[in-house]
Predict the structure.
Amino acid sequence: MTQLWDFSGGIHPAENKHLSTSRPITDAGLPEVLVLPLQQHIGEPAEACVAVDDRVLKGQKVADVTGGMGVPVHAPTSGTIESVSLQPVPHPSGMSDWCITLKPDGKDEWAPLNPVTNYRDLDRETVLERIRDAGISGMGGAGFPTNIKLRPPRDRKVNTLILNGAECEPYITADDMSMRENAGEIIAGLRIMAWVLRPERVVIGIEDNKPEAISALRKAAEGTQTEIAVIPTKYPSGGEKQLIQILTGMEVPSGGIPADIGVMCQNVGTAIAVSAAIHRGEPLISRVTTVTGDAVTDPGNFEVLIGTPIDYLLAQAGPTQNKLHRLVLGGPMMGYTLETPAVPVVKTTNCVIAATATELPDPAPEQPCIRCSMCAEACPMELLPQQLFWYSKSGELDKAEHLNLFDCIECGACSYVCPSSIPLVQYYRAAKGEIRVQQAEQLKADRARERFEARQARLEREQQEKEQRRKERAKAAAEAQAKKQAEAEKAEAEGQPADDRAAKATLVQEALARKKAKAQQQAETKAGASETSTSSEPTPDIDALEKQLAQATAKLNTMQSMLEDARAENADNVEKLERAVTKNHDRVKRAEEALAEARLSVAATDTQPTDS
Amino acid sequence: MALAQQSSPHARNARSTSQVMLWVILAALPGLLALTLFFGWGNLINVVWCIAVALAAEAAILKLRKRPVAFFLKDNTAAVTGLLLGLSLPQFAPWWVSAIAVIAAIVMAKQLYGGLGSNPFNPAMVGYALVLISFPVAMTTNWAQPGLLWESAPGFVDTLGMIASGQQTAVDAFTMATPLDEYKHKITTHTAAEVLAHPTFGDGVARGWEWVNAAFLVGGLVLVGLKIITWHIPVSMLAGLALMSLAFGSNADLYAPLSMHLLAGGTMLGAFFIATDPVSAASSHQGKLIYGAGIGILIYLIRTWGAYPDAVAFSVLLMNFAVPFIDHYTPPRTYGHHKPRRGIPGKGQG
């Protein structure tokens, strides 16, 4: 008998599972059209690798992920690509996203498959690649790419591999029926994952309200090391964190992942997909989905092709008799309502509830919170929902965050028990969203401030370096001076012969005289040249003038922008700046004139005949 | 066809606030029955009168505050406030004393703070404390003599007449000091045996009161069983009171014995029906334990060394003051965290 732990809180909502377990899983059939969203997983969306009017075979890759985290999408049947376009997808916001529309040709013709006879002969990387290429992402809810999950961080060893067969949400029976009918394949998939991870313990957690599934799994797991742990029925025992606590007694650290404590959870449906991908080479192109609720006459579980429109699927479960009031994708605790049934089944679609108004009635009007603490008693994360609600509603988000708002798993247990009919989870979602927006803004502001401060620091540093260099130059000059003087003094002190110094002086005199004569000569030639040109050496002059002009212009621009700023701020130095700008303006003008003149003269010199 | 758009969860429990309050009322009925059996019609008349005044006051103030009257009256919380006052006030309290207590509770303590869910103080106890301080004579001399309803108590019409007459004091022949009052005042000059000879004590601990407290205990356990209240506040309050009595009051010739503290006066009514008012109580389990224990300790302190023979109202109100503070320092440890995050963000320890 496996040792079990309890998690705090939890609720026992009406299960309503019997509705959809009375008949075996049936094939939903081939709809008129299949709509394949390019993003059915967490990560980067896939990119279509087929063109409109292409004929594709069943299982052929139609979209692949080129960069980043993600998994490809495959054609669920053979047919023609009708379009790659924006279509409504299953999402709480009712948004549209890129989808490939496939028109089935009815032939259901498979692409060549590449099954593995013995995966143990391959290396683990190859197996993970095959899992990725089969387009498998977690089928329990979030849709995390399975190959990435199966490759935990290098420093994290998975000791316990858990297969989550708890299926604690009311109504949903997709995992239950899969376990009853497909236990062998589940164990096979689980063994592949266990082979990849090499854990010490492999355990399937399953709620005690599924006796048929338990006995089927027990039979299938005979002879393997797999434990079947039958856990008490209590919502949300199938929550990843709760199931880990039930089976191991450990808690996933806040903000961490199960691998941090050496645990990994995988879903029943994912195990089937992994087995199909490795043993038969089949990519993930269909899944088991529960269609239930009082608004369908024939509820049950269906093997549905990915991309099947939900309205087609609903029709397979009997007409909706115009009683359909609320269409929920997922379970009644954590699922979301659809605005239209014209969205496709995706890899994470485990349940569709077509509910009547009496079955899931509109909530009663919200009453004030009386802090009865029933929510706190129900919370599986040991939060204080009543306090979180108070702070979320009053906008004291720092206090809500302080009370671990972000540890809320949005299981809905608090809202379920609230006698005042307060949509608590909705308040938490709104508060979390608000905090995320604030954090993003804060990050942006922080970055801007950092940039500004870095710039300020750089300017200051440059200024300091300049100052430093100036000081060094001054020092060097002073030293040189001092040295010279010292040498002179030394010489004097050493009593160098006076005539020696006299001789030196004479030499200097002579040199000076020579220089003077040369200068005079130059002046004479210059005077001669000046008859035809203002300057005998025009090129360096133009360079200097250009430099001067550029400097003056730059200075003027700075001045002008400063003036504009000052004007905008209505500062009191406006007048001063105006004067400075005018002055600089004149300077620029003069520099321009000088330059123009210089250029003109150069031009004149250049055009002078050489014999002049 | 427009499909309903709702945020999860889609399934809801059926139990509403008004049903919760109705259960509180039903669970108090055994206590009311015991009060009536042992102390006559007074409490029953008070309960009916107080509930009527409470509903009228609630309706009037809701109208003044421009709030939907029927929507809030249906939540049954005003009725519970009226009920609790009717159960706590002396049997022959004049009608206007009861009315003042109820109006103070509903108008001042509840609605002026923002109505249901926003009151920091227990409304019924605010009303009770107000009239206890303002009308000490009416609040101490109008306790009915214990006696079986069909034997010695005044009849329904006589009781109604006394309450309706509006006299501060009822007919002497029908009243008697409460056991806690009698013990407190006599024990300073008498021995325990002499004090206990007074008919108010009867053969057991406190004639009539022991049954009343037992009945409230039973009703309270029903509420715990229905998960309308948790065990934390009643248990810690009774434990606080008992430990104080064991520590300081073991000498019966000086102090009232433990059995009297638990079974006389408003102990069980206070522990299961008054201190557990969720709006004004602490929220976490640990907080509730501290809050309840504080009430128990204060009850003992005031009963023993204070000026009043009973102290549920003052103790509850004093601990109401402490609730925001208690709440800040007693959050539970959340899953995945090493320790609870106490204090106020930015001020307490992370």
Notes: DSSP finds 16 helices and no strands in chain B.
